[in-house]
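User: Here's a structure from my thesis project, written as structure tokens. My advisor, Dr. K., wants to see whether a designed sequence matches the one we expressed. Can you design one independently, without my sequence as a hint?
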């Protein structure tokens, strides 16, 4: 009898979990109420298309009580504050959700600013809020309007630092108020530090606060002939402690079978000739040597994306800046952090650097008619001159990577990828240039002997975007020209001898 009762209970639970709800609604243009046909609508599991009248019917589990549209090219969703309202919360027996989208002028281009790892926590001793406002936020407020161009931000996770939500009363709502000072619409991605540590014992429940503010953790949208996918590859796991809190360090980088099924259905609505931009927090690949890579959780993602003619994968998490050419048509860009290695780095270096020597910054993507280009921008810096840093190894102490008497120079080309070209001349003569696996001397000077060395995550790290050029003399000027994959050229006349930059001393 007891076994029978148990079996019936399990069957009832399974039935409840399998209960499906049908959502109906209409997708239309705000300008003239015209229906929008062929627009993808999803609950994060199923994907359907609106019919000729703009109507859709979606039957699914609706476990997050959310439905969303994949906003088509030529349109944008209205924003509530800075959060685009491409999603709707539904409940009840026969819920409805209509979506009104704003039509953009024909030929509208997009400027997309990609940032990540902001880690706002309102810690004055670290200088996070002050630096964020003076750097990234000020840059966004200074962006000049471009004729025929819309601007938005994509935040790739770690907007906050979860362990400070309750200790410091600074969480996602407070972060959002900082972004509202900027005023640009922001598409968000879940990071490992954006979970509510008091949100329960599962990853899904800990993401509840995120969903309440930003909507679904997996979704897509379209910008000027390109398809963007945002998905959550962070699994927060582990038991709660005696205080009912999760350990923020217990995370796994993974995609669930359900996410992959949704992604298959989403991508099935997209032509193979459409460029795809895939956004997630943790990188799919990591450098372990100059040409050595460690594959992460993205093998199935790469397989699903491989049919498209052009794929750009955007990730964060590492607080580094590097590019991986996965296939001739697929590039992963692990984006530089907005906070540098950490906000306190600026107090040591004088400027906020990451462990590979790249200044804190962001990526700007420019999109028009199915074409996409991008470039790195240092926070508060000049994007034309701030693409690389040069070193005279004769004038650098050995402990920071110098080589007295070598006459060699070092180039740290922050956003280098295999399509870039590097030219170095001495007295009008081209000199050999070799990519090497080493640390950045300026960051090494800042870290060695400073509080940064106390934390493994803040120590100097070897980088795959540093180059060594062998000069013949110790004092002749060096002419440097680097050209990115889009033909943009950046130059420097390096006068030698050149001293290593100033760094605040802790000795």
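Assistant: Designed independently from the structure alone:
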């Amino acid at each position: 009898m007891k076994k029978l009762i148990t079996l019936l209970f399990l069957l009832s639970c399974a039935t409840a979990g399998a209960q499906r709800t049908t959502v109906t609604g209409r997708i239309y243009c705000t300008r003239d109420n015209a229906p929008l046909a062929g627009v993808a609508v999803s609950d994060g599991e199923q994907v359907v298309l609106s019919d000729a009248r703009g109507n859709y019917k979606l039957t699914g589990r609706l476990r997050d009580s959310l439905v969303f549209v994949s906003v088509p090219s030529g349109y944008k969703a209205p924003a509530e504050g800075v959060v685009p309202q491409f999603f709707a919360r539904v409940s009840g027996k026969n819920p409805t959700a209509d979506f009104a989208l704003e039509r953009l002028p024909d030929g509208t281009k997009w400027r997309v600013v990609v940032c990540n790892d902001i880690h706002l926590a309102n810690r004055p001793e670290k200088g996070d809020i002050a630096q964020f406002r003076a750097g990234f936020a000020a840059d966004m407020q200074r962006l000049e309007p471009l004729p025929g161009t819309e601007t938005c931000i994509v935040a790739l996770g770690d907007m906050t630092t979860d362990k400070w939500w309750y200790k410091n009363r600074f969480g996602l709502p407070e972060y959002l108020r900082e972004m509202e000072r900027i005023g640009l619409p922001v598409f968000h991605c879940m990071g490992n530090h954006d979970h509510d540590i008091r949100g329960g014992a599962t990853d899904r429940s800990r993401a509840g606060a995120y969903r309440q503010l930003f909507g679904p953790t997996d979704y897509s949208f379209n910008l000027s002939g390109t398809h963007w996918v945002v998905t959550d590859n962070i699994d927060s796991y582990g038991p709660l402690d005696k205080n009912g809190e999760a350990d923020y360090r217990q995370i796994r980088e993974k995609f669930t079978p359900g996410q992959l099924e949704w992604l298959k259905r989403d991508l099935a609505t997209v032509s193979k000739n459409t460029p795809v931009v895939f956004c997630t927090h943790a990188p799919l690949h990591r450098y372990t040597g100059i040409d050595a890579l460690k594959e992460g959780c993205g093998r199935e993602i790469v397989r699903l994306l491989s049919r498209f003619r052009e794929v750009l994968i955007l990730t964060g998490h590492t607080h580094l800046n590097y590019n991986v050419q996965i296939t001739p048509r697929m590039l992963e860009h692990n984006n530089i952090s907005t906070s540098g290695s950490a906000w306190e780095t600026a107090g040591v270096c004088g400027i906020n650097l990451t462990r590979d020597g790249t200044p804190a910054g962001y990526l700007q993507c420019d999109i028009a008619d199915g074409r996409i280009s991008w470039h790195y921008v240092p926070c508060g810096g000049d994007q034309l001159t701030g693409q690389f840093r040069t070193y005279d190894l004769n004038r650098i102490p050995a402990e920071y990577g110098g080589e007295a008497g070598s006459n060699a120079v070092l180039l740290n080309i922050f956003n280098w990828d295999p399509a870039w070209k590097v030219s170095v001349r001495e007295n009008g003569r081209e000199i050999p240039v070799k990519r090497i696996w080493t640390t950045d001397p300026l960051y090494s000077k800042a870290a060695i002997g400073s509080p940064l060395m106390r934390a493994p995550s803040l120590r100097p790290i070897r980088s795959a975007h540093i180059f060594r050029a062998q000069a013949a003399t110790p004092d002749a000027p060096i002419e440097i020209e680097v050209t990115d994959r889009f033909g943009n050229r950046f130059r420097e006349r390096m006068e030698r001898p050149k001293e290593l930059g100033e760094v605040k001393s802790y000795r």
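When you compare it with your expressed construct, this may help: The longest strand covers residues 21-29.
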